[in-house]
Amino acid sequence: MAGIDVGGTRVKSVLADSQGSVLLSHTASTPERPGEAVVDLVVATVADLLERASAEGVEGRLGAVGVVVPGLVDESTGSAAWSANLGWRDLPLRQRLRDRLDVPVAVGHDVRAGLLAEFHLGAAQGVPDALFVPLGTGIASALLAGGRVVAGSEWTGEIGHVVVEPDGPVCGCGRHGCLEAVASAASLGRAWRGLGRDGDAETLSRAVVDGDPDAVRLWHGAVDALVRVIAPVCAAAGTRVLLVGGGLAESGAVLLDPLRERLVHSLGHDRVTVTRAALGDRAGALGATLLAMEATA
Amino acid sequence: MAGIDVGGTRVKSVLADSQGSVLLSHTASTPERPGEAVVDLVVATVADLLERASAEGVEGRLGAVGVVVPGLVDESTGSAAWSANLGWRDLPLRQRLRDRLDVPVAVGHDVRAGLLAEFHLGAAQGVPDALFVPLGTGIASALLAGGRVVAGSEWTGEIGHVVVEPDGPVCGCGRHGCLEAVASAASLGRAWRGLGRDGDAETLSRAVVDGDPDAVRLWHGAVDALVRVIAPVCAAAGTRVLLVGGGLAESGAVLLDPLRERLVHSLGHDRVTVTRAALGDRAGALGATLLAMEATA
């Protein structure tokens, strides 16, 4: 069982046995904007995993392959509909991979697969109603409702491009004030340097701990923006736990404490837990192996 | 099969055959704050329905009863957890009704049941990913994801109490700037009269059509507030259709057109339809009959 997470900068892959236990894992760089060559990339990654397994004497039977990608994904057709960073549009990824690999193939969305992994193996175990928000270069979300990962239209989870400040900073998408342009790790780092300071979002988070007023203002602005988007989702779905992931979650309590405080205020009740996602940057690849297992079931 | 919707001012009930076709329906006033006496009220409503059926020569076999109520509801236990208007707290409604009625009983939430009815019989037919937002005295929501009505914690759907304007008008819940305090039919009527004008939200909507500047400003403020809460939910869940219900939806295009325009802007894509809910104030009772049918399945 192979699980492969094709990210904007890295390809993370794991080989697991039929019970889902990880036998080996590997990380490689993603070629710049692979576009449709992502098919070759996945085929080569699978071959590489099997070769490593053989070299290490690991039982490496390939029962199925799960592949997860960012952007717009239609799980029902296995189509990678759009990714700006990776350079594809309407790519029938599942079909192309089935033509090349002699095993069942599942194609999923990186964040939704990550939430599936958090539900089965990580911080949402036993909690059927959860919201997963990774805060990294960009921002997306995945929603678990009644133990099922929600996947409506191919735009599902694109909370990073909800406008939170109509007069806010320009987003990569060309509009102003998207959540991602205000509260992602990348945009916080940019805003911090825009104040003439050195470093990135991590530097900023340490300055917040030290009580630097510029840092505190910037940070709380980001927390407010996150809550403006997260609170309505939690209210509508009856979310019991908010899992924060991505690079920004590594700042820990300096992020999670004010996030919970403002979320509770905005919701008007305290029946929501805010916690760090448990599986880190392996969540997507682990979720991909779960999709592979489902594909053989 | 009886479906009963116990609202803040009216009790709507329908008797349906085993295929769900409505045989007769009735509306009565809700006694003020019935509290636990809602059990007697439901039992009397069922008896009254059967009596009417008999008098009108309708085949009125009572296979099961579905009851829906507002506020906080836990469908898994059939408990009516809290309603400020109706005056109960932690009422084991399903159990109490089972003790009194000799048929299966289902207890649900009025808005979630209304969405179930819209999905099976109304404006969301064939659309498995929908958001239903009735705008009346208060505001709540129900979310359909993958053809299933989402019910997480008992606070599910309480979008009316998400804070949208921290310095906004006082809400019935005591806090400032809840969505319900800015954009419900009741609060819009109050704000309109607060400007020294006569009438209610319906009068206001006509003044918007006439281009009255005060009316337009108030109306668009409400639309903006609605979009601030609705857009994140649609983004997270991949919602394909937004169903607007309640009294305010009767204003039609003057509400739905700007709502869609601003929603599309906030989401950054136009893959969402905004439409009026189809079943009006019968949605809850019709949904209750669907819950009753499920209870016998």
UniProtKB/TrEMBL annotation, chains A, B:
Highest rank taxon of the organism: Bacteria
Stored Gene3D superfamilies: 3.30.420.40
Record InterPro entries: ATPase_NBD, ROK
Keywords tagged on the record: Kinase, Transferase
Molecular function in Gene Ontology: kinase activity
Family of this protein: Belongs to the ROK (NagC/XylR) family.
Listed name of the protein: Sugar kinase
Organism: Knoellia locipacati
